[in-house]
Amino acid sequence: FFHFYAGICSALKLTVPSHTIHGIEGQPLHLTVDYNFNATASEIQIIWLFERSQSNPKYLLGSVNQRVVPDLEYQHKFTLIPPNASLRINPLHLSDEGNYIVKVNVRGNETIAASQKIQVAVDVPVTKPTVHTEPSSGVVEYVGNITLKCTVARGTRVAYHWMKNGKRLHAGPNYTFS
């Protein structure tokens, strides 16, 4: 579950997830955004921008009264889901990590606006680990040492745990870890 917070500007309330959203590389990601206002609206405009650190924000797409105008470069990747301001990213790539800015403008007697920022982190699934034995022939019981090396080809936030008979191994006279 996400905790939500709202940015209130005049009578327009824009609700976005308050914590970093984690998506999985290659999978779709849905950024849920809701808005409401207590004014009569003749036009509702939604704009989505993307910014990476040390770079200018890029326009992704926008809409006026639910008519979506995409940036042609990204039109197959980003989708606006009316009637709310939610954004769908499909598929998610590592380069999509950064801040997504949503801005809503409501024009009635006056124009009211609100914007929020959503931070997105992209996780790469951990590949199946491979274990190498040195020496490769194994070791004769009671003689010498053996080194087991575990590696993964890809993955974010990888943690290694060695187990023996279903129980976690800890450093001691028989085991050293590096």
From TrEMBL:
Keywords in alphabetical order: Cytoplasm, Disulfide bond, Glycoprotein, Immunoglobulin domain, Membrane, Signal, Transmembrane, Transmembrane helix
Topology within the bilayer: Single-pass type I membrane protein
Record's GO cellular component terms: centrosome; Golgi apparatus; midbody; spindle
Major location category of this protein: cytoplasm
Protein localization: Cytoplasm; Endomembrane system
Gene3D superfamilies: Immunoglobulins (2.60.40.10)
Residue span, Ig-like domain: 129-178
Pfam families per UniProt: V-set
UniProt GO BP: centrosome cycle
Protein name (database record): HECA2 protein
Organism of this sequence: Callaeas wilsoni (North Island kokako)
